[in-house]
Structures are given as structure tokens and as C-alpha cells.
Amino acid sequence: MNRELIASGSRTGPRHQVNQDRCAHWRGDDLIIALVADGVGGHEAGERASWLLVDSFVQQLGVVGFGDRFTRLREQPPPSPITVAKHLPGPVQWVEALLRRANDRILDEASGLGQGAIMATTAVVAVIDRLRGSFHICHVGDSRAYLYANQGLRQLTRDHVEATATGSRKRHAVTRAVGAHLVLPLEITPIAHRGTRFAQGDVLM
Known about the structure:
Elements: E1 21-27, E2 31-41, H1 43-61, H2 68-75, H3 90-110, E3 119-129, E4 134-140, E5 146-149, E6 152-155, E7 161-166, E8 169-174, E9 187-190, E10 203-204
Helix pairs in contact: 1-3
């Protein structure tokens, strides 16, 4: 079996002074979880929200590359009292539960910033579970996942945005984000791709 190469990189965009991107990954023998978050809102609030999201995963799954805990993750049910979709594979249920817990954590911290304060982040998480032969993308917001395979690029997510007109300019506002809703409107998509087996040259972005 080929060993996947996992890499990450980010840069501050031309219109921003602070990089609000955060990313992390965890890999076991037959399970990979990769996460990207991009803060929404003011500089400090968005940066803090994306950090809180990644930190929520780190607290539950351990450091990057930590594999031993994946076995226990598959054997145990999601932490209560979070309600998750029971038909999903175990690791996907855990990711859903962690995203919902991170949503509550961000909401709780944002409540101390004053009325109308925005502290939120987009999120896209890939869950590749070879044990069950499943490949899922969990996402909220406009951070995207792509798959490059067979010399073609395929977008795996749809943006949660709406277009708004301001004078002669057209802008796109994010309609879903972690920390922006009391109940997180998470989208979970099963991906069909060679039974989760990646061939030489395939790239998940």
C-alpha cells in the first residue's frame, strides 16, 4: 500500500493583515483525518475561532500523527450529549461530534465579546477510513475540498455563501460557519473514489 504524503501551507491574502488559517491532520494505519479552518469576522475574533476549532480536535485526538487513539476512537460511541447521525461510520460520527462541540466552545467565548460580536470559522474535514472503506468530507462555510485524479480536478464541496450587491460591487457572504449558529448546519458528503484507495499521483486538497 502506498504511504500518503501529507503537507500543509498557508499565506496571508493581499487584503488581510492577519492569517486566520489553521490546519492539522491525524493519521493511523487505516484512518486519516485532515482539517482546514479559516476564521470569519474581525482579525482577532476570526483567528481565535479557527484556533479554538483546531484545538478542540487536538484535545480529543492528540498530537499530529498520533495513531494509538484511533483504535479507541473506532470502538467507542461519540461523546454524549451531542446528537449525531447514527448511520455514519464511527470516525465520521466523532468528527461531527467534535465540530459541534467546537461550535459550542466558540459560541461560549464569543458571548464575552459583547452583543453582535462575530467569532466564527469555516471548516472542511476529510475522513478517510480504510477499515470501513469510507471517505467522507464534513464542511461548513466556503473552505473547499478538491480531488485531483485521472488528470482531472473535482470539487468535493459546495460553498455556503450568498451573493450580495453593494453599489456596483458584488460580494459573497458566508452563510454557515462554526460559531455562527446555535445548532451547527454541518454538511457531510460521502465521496466515491476507488473504495478510498488513492493511486500514485492522486491529490486531495
